[in-house]
Amino acid sequence: MTYTVSQITAYLKNLFEGQAILRSLEVEGEISEYRRSSQLYFTITDGNAKLPCVMFLDSARRGLLCKLEIGKRVKVSGRITVYPNAGRYQLYASRVEEVGRGPLNEQLQQLARALKEEGLFDPEHKKPLPPYPKRVGLVTANNSAVLEDMRRVFRERNPYIQLVLSPCRVQGNGAAKEICRAIRRAERAGVDVIIVGRGGGSRDDLLEFSDEQLVRTVYACEVPIVSAVGHEIDYMLIDYVADVQVQTPTAAAERVAFPVDDFLRSIADMHYALVKGVCRSVDGARERVVRLQQGMRHLSPKAQLERRRELLSLSRERMSVIVSAGIADERRAAMDAERNLRHRMRESLTSCRSRLGMLEAGLTAMSPYRLLEQGYAFVTVDGRPVKGIADLPAGTLMKGYLADGQFEAQVVSSQEKPGDT
Question: DSSP string covering 248-294, please?
């Protein structure tokens, strides 16, 4: 009897829903995958098996008691049934609560701390990428979309770079050992840089890229390694030890494959600069030769004798001009000095006459003869001027001077002015 897919799926759905334990249960596990769209989708694992879960937003508003994060250990309550459209069973969660960090996450953290303490993640150990690699090793799965993407980028940007494929598995148990062997093969092939790449995936899918042996292999490799594993998880140890880490293999190819057009333009620019520099050097050398030839002619005895004759003639002419100019200057200076002296003497004489007139006027104004001309007399006794009535007692012989002569008289009587005593 032949069944349709829908019949088988419906049978399994009824079988699941008929089990009482699956209608209401609690499951503990570590979140290994998580995404959010119209609902919350996540996967829990115990390291040996996975259980896909879905939680509707209405249920999340009531029963989501912690933040969903990869590596977190949670207890999920709900029911398990079959989702016909995907043909798989899943747990429809009604409640999610945190119970701690998962053991896988803790192991990765412990390993990361140990490797960091050893110095495997120190920046000083990271090697720079070569600016112009000739051979590039690709460590990835053969016939994969990742490989084709990287090849396409190299073809578009620089088809002259030789690609050396070192194929290996990039997922599943034992993949880390294959990746280690592939890295060592690429190193022995003499490549300039190695790209370790794969597409995205869940943390469980990418656990091999946190393998301790792989980390140590990358650290020991003498060739620069680019880690190009598409992921959104917290821990992937190859990222920390690789010399360069990028988000995708395509980005890694773009980082390593220098654009050949830009390179050729830079070569042309350097060639032009080199030719220009050589031409400039040749022109400079030619100019130096011309200057040396001119210098040789300039230093010949005949040229030196001729120059000395010319200098002597010029010196004579200059001396004659200088002497003539000096004599003319001296004459002009003497004439100017004479004019200045005459001018100053006239000014001095005028000034002296003016001062003399002023002094004469002052003396005339202060002369006692001016008073005598106004009717006053100058009286003396024994040649001494009379200053007051006390000097003229009765009987005193006095002598007086007027403007037009002098006289002698004897005092008959004298009297002081009232109010003076």
Answer: SHHHHHHHHS--HHHHHHHHHHHHHHHHHHHHHHHHHHHHHHHHHHH
- In a domain, residue 16? The reply is yes
Same domain, 269 and 391: no
Q: What residue numbers bound the domain in which 224 lies?
A: 121-258
In angstroms, the CA 331 to CA 327 distance is 6
Mean pLDDT, the chain, integer: 86
pTM (two decimals):
0.51
Specify the 3-state DSSP secondary structure of 215.
Answer: helix
The strand order across the sheet containing 193-198 reads: 162-165, 135-139, 193-198, 225-229, 244-245
Helix then strand count (H, E) for the chain reads 13, 14
- pLDDT tens digit string along 255-310? 999 888 777 787 778 888 888 888 888 888 888 888 877 777 666 777 778 877 88
Do 165 and 252 belong together in one domain? yes
Task: Name the more confident of 134 and 369.
Answer: 134
Pairing of strands 225-229, 193-198: parallel
b/e 264-290 (16+ beta carbons within 10 angstroms → b): eeeeeeeeeeeeeeeeeeeeeeeeeee
Q: Which helix (H) or strand (E) segment is 217 a member of?
A: helix 212-220
